[in-house]
Design goal:
The complex is a heterotrimer of chains A (285), B (292) and C (468).
Chain A lengths: L15 H29 L3 H6 L12 H9 L2 H32 L5 H12 L3 H14 L6 H5 L6 H12 L3 H9 L4 H12 L1 H17 L2 H6 L8 H9 L7 H21 L1 H9 L5
Helix pairs in contact in A: 1-14, 3-14, 4-8, 4-11, 5-8, 9-10, 11-15, 13-14
Chain B lengths: L6 H28 L2 E2 L7 E2 L3 H8 L2 H31 L4 H15 L2 H11 L6 H8 L14 H26 L3 H9 L4 H29 L3 H6 L11 H11 L3 H35 L1
Antiparallel strand pairs in B: 1-2
Chain C lengths: L12 H8 L5 H6 L11 H16 L14 E2 L2 E8 L3 H17 L3 E7 L3 H14 L5 E5 L3 H6 L23 H4 L11 E6 L1 E6 H6 L8 H11 L1 E3 L2 E7 L4 H10 L16 H16 L3 E2 L6 H12 L3 E7 L3 H7 L4 E4 L12 E7 L5 H14 L2 H11 L6 H9 L2 H4 L1 H9 L12 H19 L3 H15 L1
Classes of the chains: A mainly alpha (285), B mainly alpha (292), C alpha/beta (468).
Chain lengths: 285, 292, 468
């Protein structure tokens, strides 16, 4: 069946009802998904007396960015954000750096034990971090690696999913390309990173994006692996804003939320198509 | 192809395999081993055999947690899938407005669980929350939902569904793209109405995608932790104590390593089964795309 | 002093980096010495240190190898990591005092790290101890002191300079807070100590011409009078976090004890059931008490908030929140002692400073200096008057009395006067577990679902006996 490859042309449904329904759905969806954001921003610009007196008013009176200043004084936002970005970036980078040769070996090379190696990768696909954190925590505790960047990055440096996806992508790359490169005298190293790598760039970029976003947002692993604030990540810092003793200052918490979400939303705005496609698996098979 | 040197493939695989084995395979074995002990990290461990498992089963803790998690997951999957599918069908139109709305829905998936949980906590605040007030105006109860043992878990499921709908929608949109236009046009020409077209053409072809989405969402919601930790910490009255949170509590708040390990082992077992389903669904979807 | 574990002599990469490093933490900015004393902190040096500390945080070679051997130094000053669990107003006061301490001398700098609420901080402390990264100084709730002491992770303080001579208020010291039938090493010094108090909306009680309730029955009656229901909104007469502390108070008031003479966990026996049943009646039958949502300290926050918003006329809270409530309420706040049933009784609450045994020697000595400084009269007064916590030393109380503080602030007196009726905690290492596992979840459960009090407490007792 020929698949329609042109940009999404519209079928003329020829019925007004579905179109009306669609508009209604769009309005409802817009409301349900945008109003919370708006509410978050509005709250973050209110002052405490205004928040207490008129919690539901849609306009802050006065409009006061004081909550953001409080957030900045309550925690070292820049340091936390830098830590988080470096951690997520390191994980994403390590993942693609390792997934490429591993996926290549599994897809292109024939050797004894390939089945076993692939089996290990598949098996790990089925194991989430939440099932392993107890022993890994204890391991790091014994090594005194708690509260270090290593404990945050190392467990995720290899991605079973990434390896699997790279392998899938490489399966459809013709062997001739590799053979030609070999005849040209290129080393395996070069072949993997310089020849084959660019071919599966979309897959790698997808992996990079999804991994970065996932680990930037990760709350669980840093929560478990850190106790001090030396390598505290931003999600943890923002979550701590809520844990106050005497009265939750929602405007401060919302300001923290906004700060936390900003980089990811910015990334999303810039790389929206890519991110969407990565998640939906458009380029991956 | 034959590798240039026998050690090449192993060199390429070594770091990955080493890390995966150390951080994924070995820990499960270690957890199984440590589940046979009673240990609080500060004093010496004590061998107790299967006591930990017995304790979990005897007090009904294990069953409670498992059922709660399954119930929660079912709600999330049902909610996210139906709204995701509905939105995918409704918003699959050209134009900046629709693109913007699609992006907004998806953006909830992209931001952190921390942000989503805190935002909803604020909106559900008993006294001043936007949503609480709306519910009160609509005549619903006036007690804060997150403080009510009957409603806390469903509410968490709604929050999770809010976040995950974007994912479902995006995957369904991709799936819809894979439906040949010709089929739909033919059906339209034959006089089939929108619903009939959906039921007879779209849905059958969308089934593999739906299975994929369902199993992915199921696995994701089974691993839910962040939203519980931030909003209710397992309460009120244990009503939101989901699997991963229970494990976390056991080890970090109660310092019961053995019990936590036992829970981890059971959790892994359940997840393993779920994940095999997921893999199968994925393969089915992939092969369908190749076939088309 | 007791023996220490062997220490490595080679500094690790991380320690070395941290020896140079300084934080960009804004908290630290708040702690920087005032302009006059800023001789050592020139801008370029500070910037370089910031960078290095940030680098240390991001460094992958940050491997801590071996137990924490050497004390960290900044500018030649010993750094004392201090993990605390206080929020908002109280936290600001603490940070001010810490900054003052840091500025007052040049040998030590205390670095406070916020770790959430008491229970979160405790969890992190215990895991940090197990992982070998525990700080030198922290503070823990009284109920967990016996457990940590038995686990051998606390530093005994008897041998430290001046420990025996501290003029602590008897009810607030470790000896007074716990039943002192046996002589024990000194494990903790009072930090933020409190008793529960009742707090009422001053305007309302004047309007309604209500006398502050002094018995349980009076409390129920007052709550009924003050509860108003109009147009879907309720103003509750009474609210109290459904939690262990207040339950223990009521057990004492009903004539019960947590542990009997033979050391068995009775959880107050009948008194324990009566306390729970009282709450149940107020919430479910008479509907004059608002059940707060959330667990642990969420419930406390919510109670304060409701009170401030006048959704609740009378509540039980800690004297710790007194200053915060007084300053934030748009109405006069009246504090009162808790009522009695058969007798007056309150437990003490709050936390004690503790030093962790696994920390480097120098850090512990430096931490002790800070703790002793905090117990000095000036600081004890500052801490108490700015927050509402009890002043921990007798000279501090004397000076406040002489200065007319209690005359001008009658609310503050309430907690102090209640010290007369304090029932000490039993020194039981499992006390903490009994609180967290056996009692507290069941209290909440029983109030929210109406489960029979006798059944609930019997179960709790059984579980407590199994734990102990």
């Amino acid at each position: 069946m020929p698949r329609d490859a042109s940009p999404r042309a519209r079928i003329d449904w020829g019925r007004r009802a579905p179109a009306a329904l669609a508009s209604i759905a769009a309005c409802v969806a817009g409301g349900v998904w945008l109003i919370p954001y708006g509410w978050m921003i509005v709250t973050s610009f209110k002052t405490l007396p205004d928040l207490v007196a008129r919690p539901l008013s849609p306009l802050p009176r006065p409009f006061d960015p004081g909550a953001y200043r409080e957030v900045l004084s309550a925690m070292p936002v820049a340091r936390y954000m830098a830590t988080t970005i470096v951690m997520a970036g390191a994980i994403a980078a390590a993942q693609i750096a390792l997934a490429l040769p591993a996926g290549y070996a599994l897809a292109k090379l024939r050797f004894r034990g390939r089945r076993l190696a692939f089996g290990v990768v598949l098996a790990c696909l089925l194991v989430p971090a939440q099932a392993t954190f107890v022993p890994v925590f204890l391991l790091f505790a014994r090594l005194r690696w708690i509260d270090t960047m290593t404990s945050l990055v190392l467990p995720f440096a290899a991605s079973a999913l990434g390896t699997f996806l790279v392998r899938q992508a490489l399966l459809s790359v013709p062997d001739e390309i590799v053979e030609a490169a070999r005849m040209d005298g290129a080393s395996e190293w070069t072949i993997v990173y310089r020849v084959v790598g660019p071919i599966v760039r979309p897959t790698l970029v997808s992996l990079l994006l999804v991994s970065f976003v996932f680990h930037y947002n990760d709350y669980f692993w840093p929560l478990v692996m850190t106790t001090d604030d030396a390598v505290r990540t931003l999600p943890l810092g923002v979550a701590l804003l809520r844990e106050q003793g005497s009265g939750v200052r929602w405007h401060i918490v919302m300001a923290g939320n906004a700060v936390l979400s900003l980089p990811v939303l910015a990334l999303f705005a810039l790389a929206q198509k890519h991110l969407t496609r990565s998640v939906s698996g458009g380029t991956l098979t | 192809m034959k590798p240039r040197a026998a050690w090449h493939p192993w060199a390429m695989l070594a770091p990955t395999l080493a890390l995966l084995v150390v951080f994924f395979i070995v820990p499960i074995g270690v957890a199984a081993y440590e589940s046979l002990f009673s240990w609080d990290l500060l004093t010496a461990p004590r061998y107790v055999g299967l006591d930990n498992y017995r304790a979990l089963v005897a007090r009904g803790e294990l069953l409670d947690v498992a059922l709660r998690t399954l119930g929660y997951s079912a709600l999330v999957v049902g909610g996210a899938m139906s709204s995701g599918l509905g939105l995918a069908l409704a918003l699959d139109r050209p134009g900046r407005l629709f693109a913007f709305i699609r992006a907004s829905v998806f953006s909830a998936y992209v931001i952190s669980w921390v942000a989503v949980a805190l935002l909803w906590m604020w909106m559900l605040d008993g006294d001043d929350g936007l949503v609480s007030r709306l519910l009160r105006v609509a005549g619903a109860s006036s007690s804060p939902l997150l403080g009510d043992p009957r409603w806390a878990l469903p509410v968490l499921a709604v929050i999770a569904a809010w976040k995950l709908t974007g994912y479902a929608m995006v995957v369904f949109l991709a799936g819809l793209q894979g439906i040949p236009r010709a089929l739909l046009e033919a059906a339209a020409l034959d006089g089939a109405r929108a619903w009939a077209r959906f039921r007879n053409v779209t849905w059958p072809l969308l089934k593999p995608t739906a299975a994929f989405v369902a199993t992915t969402l199921l696995a994701t919601s089974f691993q839910a932790f962040d939203v519980v930790r931030i909003t209710t910490q397992g309460g009120p009255a244990h009503s939101t104590e989901l699997f991963v949170y229970a494990i976390y509590e056991q080890i970090f708040l109660d310092l019961r390593v053995g019990r936590a390990s036992a829970l981890s082992v059971v959790f892994f077992g359940l997840l393993f089964s779920l994940a095999t389903l997921q893999l199968r669904a994925w393969r089915a979807r992939a092969s369908m795309r190749h076939a088309a | 002093m007791s023996a220490r574990h062997p220490r490595t002599s080679t500094p690790c990469a991380r320690d070395a980096l941290r020896e140079f490093g300084a934080g960009v933490s804004s908290e630290r900015r708040a702690l920087e010495p005032p302009l006059a004393a800023r001789r050592t902190l020139e801008p370029p040096l500070a910037a370089r240190r910031d960078l290095l500390r940030a680098g240390a945080a991001l460094s992958f070679t940050s491997l801590a190898c071996g137990p924490r051997g050497r004390a960290i130094r900044e500018d030649g000053r010993i750094v004392v990591p201090f993990w605390y669990a206080l929020g908002d107003l109280v936290r600001k006061v603490l940070l001010d005092l810490v900054a003052q301490f840091n500025a007052s001398q040049a040998r030590i700098v205390v670095r406070p790290v916020h770790q959430g609420d008491y229970f979160e901080a405790l969890a992190k402390l215990r895991t940090a101890i197990a992982a070998g990264v525990a700080p030198a100084l922290s503070h823990v709730v009284l109920e967990v002191l016996p457990y940590l002491a038995r686990a051998g992770v606390l530093e005994p303080l008897d041998g430290y300079d001046g420990a025996a001579a501290l003029p602590l208020v008897p009810g607030l010291s470790q000896e007074g807070a716990f039943d002192s039938s046996t002589r024990r090493p000194l494990w903790g010094l009072p930090f933020n100590r409190s008793t529960p108090i009742a707090v009422l909306d001053g305007t309302l009680i004047e309007q309604e011409r209500i006398a502050v309730p002094s018995t349980w029955d009076e409390l129920a009656a007052v709550a009924r009078r003050l509860t108003r229901r109009e147009s879907g909104q309720v103003r509750w007469g009474f609210e109290v976090p459904i939690s262990w502390w207040y339950w223990v108070a009521m057990v004492g008031q009903a004539g019960g004890r947590l542990v009997d003479d033979r050391g068995q966990m009775t959880l107050g026996g009948e008194a324990g059931e009566q306390a729970l049943a009282f709450w149940q009646r107020l919430v479910r039958e008479q509907k004059v008490m608002r059940p707060p949502p959330g667990r642990d300290y969420q419930a406390w926050q919510s109670t304060s908030e409701s009170f401030l918003r006048r959704r609740v006329a009378m509540m039980w809270t800690s004297t710790a929140l007194l200053r915060y409530l007084e300053e934030s309420a748009p109405f006069p706040v009246v504090a009162a002692p808790l009522p009695r049933k058969l007798r007056w009784s309150v437990p003490t609450g709050g936390t004690m400073f503790v030093l962790l045994r696994g920390a480097p020697e120098e850090e512990k000595i430096a931490a002790w200096e800070f703790v002793r400084w905090m117990c000095a009269t000036d600081q004890a007064i500052a801490w108490s008057t700015r927050t509402g916590y009890l002043p921990v030393t007798r000279p501090a109380v004397e000076r406040l009395r002489e200065g007319g503080w209690y005359g001008a602030h009658p609310n503050d007196r309430v907690a102090y006067d209640q010290l007369e009726h304090v029932d000490p905690w039993p020194w039981v290492p499992e006390l903490f577990r009994v609180e967290r596992d056996a009692v507290e979840p069941r209290l909440e459960d029983a109030v929210l679902t109406g489960r029979d009090a006798h059944e609930t407490m019997t179960e709790a007792r059984q579980q407590a006996r199994r734990t102990a």
